[in-house]
Amino acid sequence: MQEYVLMRTGNTPLKFSGKQLGEARGWIYNNQGPSWWHKLIVYKTVGGEYVVEDVSHTLWEEDVHFDATVLSNIDDIVDYLHSLDHLERCSPNVLEALEQIPEATERID
Description:
With 109 residues, this protein is of the alpha+beta class. Helix content is 17%, strand content 52%. The chain has a five-stranded antiparallel sheet.
């Protein structure tokens, strides 16, 4: 298992042992084109919980936001991802990849 320390803007870092299950990246668009680069990563902890890491920054990397949320199960991951307002403005390839992340889960040995 790998040790992770995930940064969280305005909060303490989240530390856990586990495995990365999936990742999606892409631009968040506004009415003038791409404005934010966005990355989501899903992990499974050795304790069986899931973590969704959410990192975004402006086109010029002047403003960076980090978040990490602990969730109990796959249904919670899907609900969480659909609750993120900024995903509606993401490029289609990111949304397609997000739909595949819950399917990528596997048992941690």
